[in-house]
Design brief:
binds N-(aminocarbonyl)-beta-alanine; 473 residues; 29% helix; single chain; binds zinc ion; 11 helices; seven-stranded mixed sheet; 20 strands
Length: 473
């Protein structure tokens, strides 16, 4: 068989199985699973370690245009480096259409931004912010055919919000073309109304980001998106669900037989709105400003129920990194005047897997197999990468993370590889840590040290998602 690399002595954990076996790799793919592999050009000793499919993070923002006052803290070089250090072997960032621009041109721009920079493989979701007839009828079908088989729409943000009519138009294209729709479900007008009232009352500190978008606003938008999807019989994925209220809408939709998928993120099991207070309402609360905002401990409990009961298919980072202490970061000149100008998003691509392992597997809330499904396999299945990625099986890409289930670490900015100047999880203690990340058979990160080659990661044209097929209603 001429095995290039054998991973020996570990416990292989996939979304479905836990097996003591060795993994043989040849030409960047898994070639052999056997009780013992004795002949290989190179061997890695994985005894005492868990051998899992590398993480797939299907919700990552890199190098995104963020307005005249703000620069994003990660491009493809630092973003994929950080992802790999956190146990990931594939990410799917967004190619975001700027209103007035062609979507095709935006995608070409992202290809240029990523080319030669990535340590691990990547795909692109599209973001549709300007659904002109050309975008709907020509560009979207062509880009789906090129392997960008999913797109996100926003129900809020001045530069991104779509009207109900526009949502229906893009949902209709998704159904015809079998593309998977991701929805940012928070309602624009509700947020704007509350924001103006808060500002008028002088409540402008980062903390008031939370009160400006309470759960009812997320719940209303989730229900509205589900109704549009039902009207057209198109499957949708509700991303970054923050708490019980949106979850209730998702459960309700599923009871009606609708194909509604859901994602949640580390911030919604570990942070609360109080983190946005900072110390004594100082500006450091800006570090935690993201949307939807972190809620309360009851919401965290609800999210855990959802993770255990299968409400959530994917657990993603929503990595959207900004600097804290920088004139072009969270506290840019305008950001100091009102929470509404603080760029929304947290860096978290590197800490996603350790946080879920530690809080989930180590604390007995979810199984190892559920962990793999939530961090890798389901992302591959939903977004057209399976079984090339998302599992350890003969013929699959050799995208593997070696995981020490017992290793204790304290998350600190100084051990991370991202571009941001802070982590929201500073001082957070975890049990369980990635000790080696292997992508297409090559070691990318070895015990925190990046040993892979920039440019070794490539663009992956994704298949159409089988989960985007209409229910047939
Ligand atoms: O606050 C967040 N989540 N920023 C990232 C953009 C998005 O809506 O996912
Ligand atoms: Zn969003
Ligand atoms: Zn996001």
């Amino acid at each position: 068989l001429d095995i290039d690399l054998a991973i020996r002595g570990g416990t292989v954990v996939t979304a479905s199985d836990t097996i003591r076996c060795d993994v043989g790799i040849k030409n960047g793919k898994v070639a052999l699973l056997a009780e013992t592999i004795t002949e290989a050009a190179r061997t890695i000793d994985a005894s005492g370690l868990i051998v899992m499919p590398g993480g797939i993070d299907s919700h990552v923002h890199l190098d995104q245009p963020s307005g005249p006052d703000v620069t994003m803290a990660d491009g493809f070089e630092s973003g994929t480096r950080s992802a790999a250090a956190g146990g990931n072997t594939t990410i799917i960032p967004f190619a975001m259409q700027v209103k007035g621009e062609s979507l095709r041109a935006c995608v070409s721009d992202y290809h240029r931004k990523a080319e030669g920079k990535a340590y691990i493989d990547y795909g692109f979701h599209l973001v549709v912010s300007d659904p002109t007839p050309t975008v709907l009828n020509q560009e979207l079908p062509a880009l789906f055919a090129d392997g960008c088989t999913s797109f996100k729409v926003f129900m809020t943000y001045d530069d991104l919000v779509l009207s109900d009519r526009q949502l229906l138009e893009v949902f209709d294209v998704a159904r015809r073309e079998q593309a998977l729709v991701m929805v940012h479900a928070e309602g624009y007008d509700n947020i704007k109304f509350l924001t103006e009232r808060l500002e008028a009352a002088g409540k402008t500190a980062p903390y008031y980001h939370g009160p400006s978008r309470p759960q009812v606003i997320e719940r209303e938008a989730t229900h509205r998106a589900i109704s549009h999807a039902e009207l057209l019989d198109v499957p949708i994925m509700i991303v970054h669900v923050s708490g019980r209220e949106a979850m209730e809408q998702i459960r309700w939709a599923r009871q009606r037989g609708l194909k509604v998928y859901a994602e949640t993120c580390p911030q919604y099991i570990t942070l609360t709105e109080d983190d946005m207070k900072g110390l004594n309402m100082d500006m450091s609360g800006a570090k935690y400003v993201c949307s939807p905002p972190p809620r309360d401990t009851d919401s965290q409990k609800a999210i855990w129920e959802g993770l255990k009961q299968g409400v959530f298919q994917t657990f993603s980072s929503d990595h959207c990194p900004f600097f804290y202490d920088s004139p072009r970061g969270k506290l840019n000149e305008k950001g100091r005047t009102s929470f509404k100008w603080v760029p929304n998003g947290l860096p978290g691509v590197e800490t996603r897997m350790p946080v879920l392992w530690s809080e989930g597997v180590s604390k007995g809330r979810i199984t190892m197999n559920e962990f793999v499904a939530l961090t890798s396999t389901n992302h591959a299945k939903l977004y057209g990468l399976y079984p090339k990625k998302g599992t350890i099986a003969v013929g699959a890409d050799a995208d593997i993370v070696l995981w020490d289930p017992n290793r204790k670490e304290t998350i600190r900015q100084e051990i991370l590889h991202h571009g941001s100047d802070y982590t929201p999880w500073e001082g957070f203690a975890v049990t369980g840590w990635p000790v080696m990340t292997i992508a297409k058979g090559r070691t990318v990160v070895d015990d925190g040290k990046v040993v892979g080659a920039m440019g070794a990661g490539s663009f992956i044209a994704r298949d159409k998602s089988p989960y985007a097929l209409p229910a047939g209603a």
